[in-house]
From TrEMBL:
<feature type="transmembrane region" description="Helical">
    <location>
        <begin position="53"/>
        <end position="77"/>
    </location>
</feature>
<dbReference type="Pfam" id="PF13520">
    <property type="entry name" value="AA_permease_2"/>
</dbReference>
<keyword id="KW-1133">Transmembrane helix</keyword>
<keyword id="KW-0813">Transport</keyword>
<feature type="transmembrane region" description="Helical">
    <location>
        <begin position="261"/>
        <end position="287"/>
    </location>
</feature>
<keyword id="KW-0472">Membrane</keyword>
<feature type="transmembrane region" description="Helical">
    <location>
        <begin position="356"/>
        <end position="374"/>
    </location>
</feature>
<feature type="transmembrane region" description="Helical">
    <location>
        <begin position="413"/>
        <end position="434"/>
    </location>
</feature>
<feature type="transmembrane region" description="Helical">
    <location>
        <begin position="380"/>
        <end position="401"/>
    </location>
</feature>
<feature type="transmembrane region" description="Helical">
    <location>
        <begin position="440"/>
        <end position="458"/>
    </location>
</feature>
<dbReference type="GO" id="GO:0015171">
    <property type="term" value="F:amino acid transmembrane transporter activity"/>
</dbReference>
<protein>
    <submittedName>
        <fullName>APA family basic amino acid/polyamine antiporter</fullName>
    </submittedName>
</protein>
<feature type="transmembrane region" description="Helical">
    <location>
        <begin position="149"/>
        <end position="168"/>
    </location>
</feature>
<keyword id="KW-0812">Transmembrane</keyword>
<feature type="transmembrane region" description="Helical">
    <location>
        <begin position="27"/>
        <end position="47"/>
    </location>
</feature>
<feature type="transmembrane region" description="Helical">
    <location>
        <begin position="180"/>
        <end position="201"/>
    </location>
</feature>
<dbReference type="GO" id="GO:0016020">
    <property type="term" value="C:membrane"/>
</dbReference>
Amino acid sequence: MRNWNRRKSIAVEALPSEHTLRRTLSWWHLIAMGVGAIIGTGIYTLVGIGAGLAGPAVVLSFAIAGAVCACAALCYAEVATAIPASGSAYTYSYAVVGELIAWIVGWSLILEYSLVVSAVAVGWSGYVVGTLSAIGLPLPVALTAGPHAGGLFNLPAVFIVFAVAGVLTMGTRESATLNAALVGVKIVALILFISVALPHFDVAQFKPFMPYGFSPHEIDGKQHGVMAAAAIIFFAFYGFDAISTAAEETKRPDRDLPIGIVGSMVICTAIYVGVAAVAIGAMPFTAYADSPEPLALILRSLGQGKVAVIIGAAAIVALPTVILAFLFGQSRIFFVMARDGLLPKSLAKVSTRTGAPVRMTLGTAAVVSVLAGLAPLDEIAALANAGTLVAFIAVAACMLIMRRRDPDGPRKFSTPLPWLIGPLAIGGCIYLFWSLPGTTKLFFGLWNLLGLALYAWVGRSAAIR
């Protein structure tokens, strides 16, 4: 039987070479990873879904979700520098609270990262299909949509998952450098959207500002309101937590992790506010509420078809940076859980040639590609949010526990006003979780029941131990 209350000792240097990740990343790699993970499907696709749930007040939904993430990011920065090991919230929970809580958090992270990769792959597929149709090369619906949308299988979504997995197997530094270049393309495209759509801005599009109210309530079988949209749009802001999974592969984690986490949040918040406000002001939200490519649709409606093609092409090129960041993080979490003996230890091996966990990366790609091929975007995003919210609550709680245990101890990064920021992060995440659709919370509960059953089985299995 396992000691469910056992806390993990962080001693990365004592690990054998086959279980040790190479330190090859600098602070600019981490900022690029954070920006690449955060700016993606959320702004390219979920701005339409969010507007359909909150109307023009989706701008407020972005602000609320961003504020909660900012509090969580500050907590992450402090805990990540205190525990500079791979595994993100799973590792922090194992070191601070104990094994059982760590398993629950790790199991939730598996849900988060796997579903994020799937959701972004679906969003990428939408832009591929839209762009190809715009230039006279339509693809058959049967191969570009899941059963929920009248198709059979979303083949482009599956393709991009394996393409990115192939890049990751080349090596950490190589994939991070490519990611940084693609992030530049993404930012330029969003600036182009703002500059072209801004002249069409009409403040009248913001009236009525809050047509569906503030609190979540059901309309036609879906939760509407500012907070209902915030609970979905929350998906657009997280991604900085993927940075913390690279702690063991960072050259100077004490300096680089806070710069990467906080810096990427500041950059992305500024871009999000600009893009969301311009999108709402340029066109009635009802016109693109259900579009898988709202930004490109807005531009085409404004007579900017060529710019729309450029934006769509940029999304095709740049959205895979989100897949790269989260597939990277997912493989590292699986890797560390296997290294700790909570998953088969045979999976916790790195390639002697690239220094990357190739076996784990390809295995993760195989799982998430099935979800990408079959599941709808909004349901994926909502369920992924549930796992993320649990991880954020765990990290904020770990920060407060560490403060309580050693209030005067040295800290390489200190969260400002920790006894305000920590509770705000926890309370905000709990409220966002409560605002998720009922079916999402039900599936998340079932997922964790399955996880607890697996944990009990792992504790009795000598083969895995």
